[in-house]
Write a structure and sequence with these properties.
This protein is 30% helix and 22% strand. The protein is of the alpha+beta class and 485 residues long. It has 3 domains: 1-83 and 146-217 and 321-382, FAD/NAD(P)-binding domain (3-Layer(bba) Sandwich); 84-145 and 221-316, D-Amino Acid Oxidase, Chain A, domain 2 (2-Layer Sandwich); 386-469, Arc Repressor Mutant, subunit A, CATH 1.10.10. Strands 1, 2, 9, 10, 11, 12, 19 and 20 form an 8-stranded mixed sheet that branches. The structure holds flavin-adenine dinucleotide.
């Protein structure tokens, strides 16, 4: 049995942000995650946009925390060394009805505290983005893009550096009252944790965790969004996210085209209620529809630009017959003191993750004294990205370590040194996907055809792993059966 003051369930953006926020205080904090790494759920499968906050109902938590999150996001990314780019965003009107929707959105945005939203006419749209169709658009200058994997990894590393203990491959299967101490006994994987507070950040499974703790009042309806990934054509085709005017009741923001921080373009997401909370497969009908809708926004995209696809699942509280958005639930349950539930954290959950964490901190501070640590370290340094350096800096790096001179991933120009750092800086980050999301190898056009074997070879030779121990994600996703010769 392990004792802790706070047990956080789930290491997505929200769980990691809560862990990092609470690590400022003198508390024993533990985070348990059912998968092998952070960002394994919805936080790794989304549009990666820092929303401005005009889409949400005034007065809702989504609006309040979303706008607050947008304002503080850039400085948090600077503090945590996470790639971030303020691109702005355009919402395109194709007819008068769309234009009316956009006018209403601007009004709603103003009520939420969003600044500098305005409509532009067809002429200005043509001047700014000649490649995009439409009769006008709305500009949101404070929308940005970022790297959600790097964000979660950074929050996790910083929280761990400040004392939070993380347990991966540890699914929570029981949450019981500790009759003797008044807190909880939580079974996660092979461990039992005794804790005063449980913070339920389990995303799609937050309803089930709440039920395990005896609060059976929530239901999450999974709603899938599928995406295409296009090659590195963002610079030549589109450098700013472009969305259609959102149609009421669809439960998403409409199929949009968004540059990623890495220079790819993504098309999506669709919006489709499904049964299975973990079914992240992509379907040919939806993919076809996505391409057709994206062509309306950006006629110059071509099928040959497509290099991959993925899907993410919204943790919706609104059932299919209702559609649209229900507000975030962030509360300590009256009927279960000590259980802080975070339910229905769908978009803009990434944008709002830091204010959500601060709200959890405030809920806790109403119950216990939070004493700040003097040695809290707010800053964290990421892995140096060789390809983003100037030629002179690259030469310096190679002089400092010849492994910077050895390219492991040719598509994304990732060096052997960066792969090694991804493996060494996080204990246990030895799965291919953990390395991928830290160093960004295997994500290019060849989808790992060139670098995967090199990474596996490095793990075997320098880190003593057997081929059959190398997994894609967690145990159960082993890539090799053994050595051939
Ligand atoms: C298609 C799509 C597009 C989106 N685009 C954006 C966007 O551009 N901007 C934005 O701000 N937001 C966006 N969002 C929303 C955003 O991705 C989510 O709000 C956010 O990622 C939620 O984070 P989370 O930590 O609550 O959930 P998750 O990332 O799902 O994390 C929950 C974690 O809990 C773990 N877990 C579950 N059950 C258990 C258990 N029993 N034991 C232990 N661990 C468990 C899971 O494995 C998971 O890692 C989008 C969402 C979708 C689906």
């Amino acid at each position: 049995m392990k004792d802790t003051d706070i047990l956080i369930i789930g290491a997505g953006a929200v769980g990691c942000a809560v862990a990092r926020e609470l690590s400022r205080f003198r508390l024993r904090i533990t985070a348990v995650e059912k998968e092998g790494d952070v960002a394994s759920g919805t936080s790794g499968r989304n549009s990666a946009v820092v929303h401005a906050g005009f889409n949400n109902r005034p007065g809702s938590l989504m609006a309040k925390l979303g706008v607050e999150g947008n304002r503080g996001f850039e400085s948090a990314c600077e503090e945590l060394d996470v790639p971030f780019q303020n691109t702005g965003k355009l919402l395109v009107a194709f007819d008068e009805e769309d234009r009316n929707i956009l006018e209403r959105l601007i009004e709603q945005g103003k009520k939420n505290g969003c600044e500098d939203l305005r409509l532009i006419d067809a002429e200005e749209l043509k001047r700014r983005l000649p490649q995009v169709g439409g009769i006008g658009a709305m500009i949101s200058p404070h929308t940005s893009i970022f790297d959600p994997f790097a964000y979660c990894v950074a929050l996790y590393e910083n929280a761990a550096e400040n004392g939070v203990r993380f347990y991966f491959n540890s699914p929570v299967t029981a949450v019981e009252r500790d009759q003797a101490e008044g807190g909880f006994l939580v079974t996660a994987g092979k461990q039992i944790f005794r804790t005063r507070f449980v913070i339920n950040c389990a995303g799609l499974f937050s309803d089930e965790i709440s039920k395990l703790a005896g609060v059976d009042r929530y239901r999450i309806y999974p709603c899938r969004g599928e995406y295409y990934i296009l090659d590195k054509v963002a610079d030549s085709l589109l450098s700013i996210p472009v969305y259609p005017a959102p149609k009421p009741g669809i439960g998403g923001l409409g199929v949009h085209i968004t540059p990623t921080i890495d220079g790819n373009l993504i098309i999506g997401p669709s919006s489709e209620y499904i049964e299975d909370k973990e079914d992240v497969s992509c379907t040919s009908e939806i993919m076809e529809k996505l391409f057709t809708e994206a062509k309306l926004l950006l006629p110059s995209i071509e099928r040959r630009h497509i290099i991959g696809n993925y899907a993410g699942i919204r943790a919706k509280q609104a059932p299919p017959e209702e559609g649209g958005f229900r507000d975030f639930v962030i509360r300590e349950e009256e009927t279960c003191p000590g259980l802080i539930n975070l339910i229905g954290i769908e978009s803009p959950g990434l944008t709002a993750s830091l204010p959500i964490a601060r709200m959890v901190r405030d809920l806790l501070s109403a119950r216990i004294d939070l004493i700040e640590k003097e040695d809290f370290q707010p800053r964290r340094k990421g892995i140096v990205r060789f390809r983003d350096c100037t030629e002179e800096e690259q030469n310096q790096l190679i002089l400092s370590d010849p492994e910077y001179g050895e390219l492991f991933c040719r598509c994304q120009k990732v060096t052997k040194r960066e792969i090694r750092e991804a493996i060494e800086r996080t204990p246990g980050a030895k799965s291919i996907s953990a390395i991928k999301y830290r160093a960004w190898a295997t994500t290019g056009r060849c989808a790992g055809g060139y670098c995967l074997a090199r990474i596996a070879d490095l793990l075997i030779r320098d880190y003593g792993m057997k081929p059959e121990e190398i997994t894609l994600r967690s145990p159960g996703s082993e890539l090799f059966r053994g050595e051939v010769k």
